[in-house]
Amino acid sequence: MSELGKKVNDAIKIIKMASIAALEKKEEKKTIDRFKPLTLAYSTGKDSDVVHHLAKMSGVDFDCVYHATGLDPKGSIEHAKEVGAIIIKPDISFFKLIEKNSFPTRRARWCCRLLKEKYDSPVSLQGIRAAESVARKKRYKEITSCRVYSKTERTEIFLPILNWTD
Hints:
Distance between the termini: 20 Å
Strand order of the largest sheet: 3-2-1-4-6-5
Shape: globular
Largest sheet: 6 strands, mixed
């Protein structure tokens, strides 16, 4: 088997593990989430497209979710629609957020936190690769992590292509 074939198989195994975790969390939970227990945090970028394709290949049940900002790059919304993503529009415009928070900076990155990083489901797939940057390589060491949004909203994140290179 080729190196790429092995990576594809390993990624599909991770996605299937995520699906099992999502089903277990669904059984534990008393509340109803907005989406299926497993979501793909979709950005319309190449890594999200790869994870979307791998998730479809795996046969697991998932929702693909794109959080629009109102300043989305040209073609992003159309591409998200093409892959069947659920598009979530922001509750408040980016410009209203600037009035409230000032301009985002490298150190004060409130924009992603307020517009894109939302609780969607108990388990999420993300197309993050350690090879994207030195910072990501330092930040992401494991294929799973947990994101806490509130006392009741936590997402177990699976990174099926974390160790893929360019």
